[in-house]
Write a structure and sequence with these properties.
Blueprint: E1 15-18, H1 24-35, E2 39-44, H2 47-61, E3 67-70, H3 79-91, E4 96-98, H4 115-144
Parallel strand pairs: 1-2, 1-4, 2-3
Length: 147
């Protein structure tokens, strides 16, 4: 980081993929990476919320638009591959992966007739999608000595 740069961190030239970045912690992480110079890929289920995060990223990054991928890990089993493919196609590299997407079942009790289906959904979102996306990202992260 150059002395004239007032940023606490310098992620210039780095590419960060942040899942679950249409709101909350994921949005804040994506915005912060952009503020510190990273190119960002954001993803979430809600296009309107994702667009608002993208606008904020453009503001803090000095006009650099993020890649936006709308998708749902539970509804689209190809989403992990799509995220990696679109990241590489847009920016040519991947340096940082933040697996932030997640959720829980609102019912979650043993009396629920759909307990096992609810459990499978929670597991697929919180564990399987993370493992799959990480596995797909590792070759790219190793090339860039990323995280």
């Amino acid at each position: 980081m150059s002395p004239s740069n007032n940023k606490k961190y310098d992620f210039s030239g780095k590419v960060a993929l942040v899942t679950g970045s249409s709101s909350g912690i994921g949005a804040a992480i994506a915005i912060q990476f952009a503020q510190y110079g990273a190119n960002v890929v954001i993803t979430g289920r809600n296009a309107d919320k994702l667009a608002k995060v993208a606008q904020r990223i453009v503001q803090v990054s000095g006009g650099v638009a993020p890649a936006q991928v709308i998708g749902d890990f539970l509804a689209d089993p190809s989403l992990p591959q799509k995220l990696v493919d679109e990241t590489i196609a847009r920016f040519g590299r991947l340096d940082i992966l933040v697996n932030n997407a997640g959720g829980a079942t609102p019912k979650g009790n043993f009396a629920s007739p759909n307990l096992l289906e609810e459990w499978d959904n929670v597991f697929n979102l919180n564990v399987r999608s993370v493992v799959e996306l990480t596995q797909l990202a590792v070759p790219h992260l190793e090339k860039t000595k990323g995280n």
